[in-house]
Design a protein that fits this description.
Radius of gyration: 51 Å
Order of helices and strands: HHEEEEEE
Distance between the termini: 150 Å
Shape: rod-shaped
Helix content: 55-70%
Number of strands: 6
């Protein structure tokens, strides 16, 4: 009987071990199923995150393309405006110059029949004054040169000539061509003769 008891105990032990083994197997299977479910959920959440990131990237790309197109349009528009401004910039100046040209035409007509040279000269002086006022109103002014120290920033020496007096050495003794500035910037250098 002892052996029967032992055998029955062993059978019971094996049965309990089988049950425990089956429980372990079931737990392992359940754990594996849970792990697989978690992996599937992780994969789904990763795919959701990936689709969100792709959507954001597409939105950023779209914004970038729109911004680039907008900038290109702005650049073209400003270049066109600049070209228009350059082409019409001189229009106002030339329009203001037309009355001086009209006066010169009248002066030329009057010289054909004029007997009094002094009257013609007086008319030309008036036209010259009108033209000089026009230049001043547009920021153009004459460079003073005669009997002043030679200044390479404003004067261009054409030649040197012996000075008629000691105090004119190194100074401008004659102006060959007047110089002009526009708003303080030299537009044309005065061509001068310098005393030595």
């Amino acid at each position: 009987m002892c052996t029967e008891n032992k055998v029955s105990e062993e059978v019971e032990n094996q049965d309990s071990m089988n049950v425990e083994g089956q429980n372990d197997i079931q737990e392992n299977v359940q754990g594996q199923e849970q792990k697989n479910e978690n992996e599937v959920e992780d994969t789904d959440s990763e795919q959701d995150e990936l689709s969100v990131v792709k959507a954001e990237l597409d939105e950023i790309k779209d914004k970038h393309l729109r911004l680039q197109a907008e900038f290109d349009n702005y650049r073209r528009r400003t270049l066109k405006e600049k070209a228009d401004l350059i082409s019409t910039a001189g229009e106002k100046v030339l329009k203001d110059l037309l009355p001086v040209i009209d006066d010169l035409d009248r002066a030329l007509e009057s010289t054909a029949t004029a007997q009094d040279v002094a009257a013609v000269r007086e008319g030309l002086d008036l036209i010259l004054n009108k033209f000089q006022n026009f230049l001043k109103s547009n920021g153009v002014s004459e460079i003073d040169a005669k009997e002043l120290e030679f200044d390479a920033d404003k004067h261009e020496a054409v030649t040197k000539f012996p000075a008629p007096s000691e105090e004119l050495k190194g100074k401008v003794i004659d102006v060959v061509q007047k110089g002009y500035t526009i708003n303080g910037k030299v537009m044309r250098f005065a061509k001068v003769v310098v005393g030595e």
